[in-house]
Design brief:
alpha/beta, Rossmann fold, BirA Bifunctional Protein, domain 2, 2 domains
């Protein structure tokens, strides 16, 4: 179990002869983002935020840390092992007689003692859904149901870092709670279509229903193994059919049950053909038939959404390993390029708030993975040209001297008042070329040069950095050109 130590440290360091300066670094699985990256990330955030609001979702935020009891037991055994725990600061602040005991426990084995309240009571959030359920319970008296919220914040998982998989990453969630209606699932599909259309990412949206998976386990006489079955078949894309069969065997699923399950693992064809096969397989399972009803409702009503950009496909092997899902589940992947990770996931949870004492609230939501969306868009070169610029500045005002600089300060103030992103080169330099070089490196599209003649005429020599053309313009023409 991973730990993060938040504690007060006091160090007395003495240096003799010379100082050794350590090269700075950041933890594995985390990243810095410079202006160029942030421009693109903000582009994604803004599209998602606008669509969340378009569909009636309101923003909330929850703390970086949650009580450990809030998070554990909600993500399955494998998920719980990826939670970053936070060591109690009082390990270093307790009385002397207790300090030695805690220090001994800490040094002996963190892994063996991770459940000890003396060590940890808090953890970094693993996702945004469980904290959202906790928020709903704590604020139940003030909420209007159905309650629709969106949340854009980072989460942390102690995963093995690799491309598309980070230890710190952002989730962009939209959830509606307090409604059993499948209209909510339809609207989430419509939101996916609009968002991925604006991001210009071709996407395959796979969906399934956990009731169908429960029905399959029932038919296999393995209802007590439902979690083992769903976790195994959810890995089909990663470990292949042979890997899934091996894991099912290791989990104690009988050979007879595995043989019955294999045709469903290999299931292909149209959505309608898959539903037909499922109806036959689940004919004697009430929960399975309920899942089929929910799937058919979505498939029969997709045409009302006027879906244009995404492809929606029923995938019986989709399980979404999180324990709290109970109905429809979603997963989306880029349908182009060589890098095709999951860039969206979600589903319905019927009683997630019940574990915090508030029964009877069903919810459903989806989560966009911004970090993977970014990586996909980079590979496919999908960012608009304007977003690829390092700077958001529209014009740089360049000067020839002190008097011209102060004149530029006044001009840039007027441009900003009109909503035009503008900056002034703050230093007086002998060569105007240095100011043009600055604008070129920052990819600023226009440079306005102000010398003594321009000051006298109340004009600006405006240069288009892309075309190289330039003309002397008054303030009104300047604004018109920039707008």
């Amino acid at each position: 179990m991973p730990y993060i130590l938040f504690a007060k440290l006091s160090l007395n360091v003495y240096f003799y002869g010379f100082i050794h300066i350590m090269k700075p670094s950041i933890p594995r699985g985390t990243r810095d983002f410079g202006p160029a990256e942030m421009q693109k990330r903000q582009y994604i955030f803004n599209i998602l935020k606008n669509n969340f609001q378009l569909f009636g979702y309101a923003p909330i935020e929850t703390p970086t840390m949650e009580n450990i009891t809030t998070l554990t037991g909600k993500y399955g055994e494998e998920g719980d092992q990826l939670i970053f725990k936070v060591l109690n600061s009082r390990i270093h602040e307790s009385k002397d007689d207790k300090k030695e005991l805690l220090k001994k426990e800490f040094n002996t084995s963190l892994e063996k003692s991770y459940n000890s309240e003396a060590l940890t009571e808090k953890a970094l959030r693993y996702d945004l859904t469980v904290p959202f359920a906790r928020y709903v319970v704590m604020n139940n008296h003030a909420l209007t149901y159905p309650f629709k919220r969106y949340q854009i914040q980072p989460v942390w998982r102690a995963d093995k870092p690799q491309k598309g998989r980070y230890r710190e990453f952002y989730q962009c969630d939209a959830d509606v709670i307090g409604s059993n209606s499948l209209i909510n699932e339809l609207e989430l599909i419509a939101m996916m279509d609009k968002s991925f259309s604006e991001l210009n990412i071709p996407v395959l949206v796979k969906f399934n229903n956990r009731k169908i998976l429960s029905g399959i386990a029932e038919i296999l006489n393995a209802s007590d193994k439902i979690i083992d079955i769903t976790v195994a078949i959810d890995k089909l894309d990663k470990i292949g059919k042979d890997g899934v069969v091996k894991e099912l065997q290791e989990k104690g699923i009988s050979e007879t049950a595995i043989k019955q399950l294999e045709p469903l693992i290999d299931l292909s064809g149209s959505n309608e053909n898959k539903v037909s096969t499922l109806k036959t397989f689940l004919a004697n399972s009430e929960v399975g038939k309920k899942g089929i009803e929910e799937i058919e409702f979505l498939l029969n009503n997709l045409n009302t959404l006027n879906i244009k950009h995404i492809t929606v496909e029923l995938d019986i092997t989709l399980a979404r390993g999180l324990n709290y899902y109970t109905g429809t589940i979603f997963e989306a992947k880029a349908n182009a390029g060589t890098f095709t990770p999951s860039i969206l996931g979600g589903g319905r949870y019927d009683d997630l708030t019940g574990i915090f004492g508030l029964k009877g609230l069903s919810g459903v939501g989806i989560s966009f993975g911004v970090d993977r969306i970014y990586d996909v868009m980079e590979e496919l070169n999908l960012f608009p040209e304007a977003v690829n610029r390092v700077s958001t500045t529209k014009i740089l005002l360049a000067n020839f001297g002190e008097a011209e600089l102060m004149h530029c300060v006044g001009l840039v103030s007027k441009l900003r008042a009109l909503g035009i992103n503008a900056e002034v080169y703050p230093d007086v330099v002998k060569k105007i070329a240095k100011q043009f070089e600055y604008a070129d490196k920052k990819q600023i599209p226009f440079v306005g040069v102000v010398g003594s003649n321009e000051m006298a005429n109340n004009t600006v020599m405006l240069k288009n950095m892309a075309s190289g053309t330039q003309e002397e313009v008054g303030f009104e023409k300047l604004v018109e050109s920039l707008k």
